[in-house]
């Protein structure tokens, strides 16, 4: 080797670096990884979906129940025979007993209790198109057939007054002489509430079959029917 070649060999940088301890580096990396918090697990999507579905069902059920309490529910599907009842409820006609109830904020189910067995039988009758109607085809029953003292004078109605308390306040009704009281009839209680009081028909003062009494507002005498 010449002198120049020896100098070049002596001055050339070495490309061999210091030895690396790969096992130590791996151990350090493992230690670092061990010190980090474990990644959070994502909540299962199925539980979220189930919760949303349950919430929707609850809200829908609550909304349905509120609608179920409204008169509009009655004829939403059962147009026959319920259309006439809802129409008269909304009419504001002073001759109809239902108007007084509507103005007082009373709805159908405040009088007609929604018992499950009754509703099932009503649905079955409607599906089979097997239910009785009045001769004019508007109602299931007339007021005379339906309105009894047991039904009309329940303690939860009329401000909690009993039938006797209601009767006591009717002497001299509608500006008539104090000796007249339609609930204290000389016919010895032969009349039922429905003979005079009618929710979806014109109310009639049966007393005027014989007497000539002043009629309550919106009422009729029997001879004008």
UniProtKB/TrEMBL annotation:
**Any transmembrane segments, and where?**
47-67
**Residue limits of the Tetrahaem cytochrome domain?**
100-212
Q: What is its main location?
A: other
Enumerate the residue ranges of region (Disordered): 1-42
Ranges annotated as biased composition (Low complexity): 16-37
Q: Which Gene3D superfamilies match?
A: Di-heme elbow motif domain, Flavocytochrome C3, Chain A
Do the record's keywords include tRNA-binding?
no
Q: Which UniProt keywords apply?
A: Electron transport, Heme, Iron, Membrane, Metal-binding, Transmembrane, Transmembrane helix, Transport
Gene Ontology molecular functions: metal ion binding
Signal sequence, start to end: none
| Recorded GO CC terms | cell envelope
| Cellular location(s) | Cell envelope
Recorded protein name is: Tetrahaem cytochrome domain-containing protein
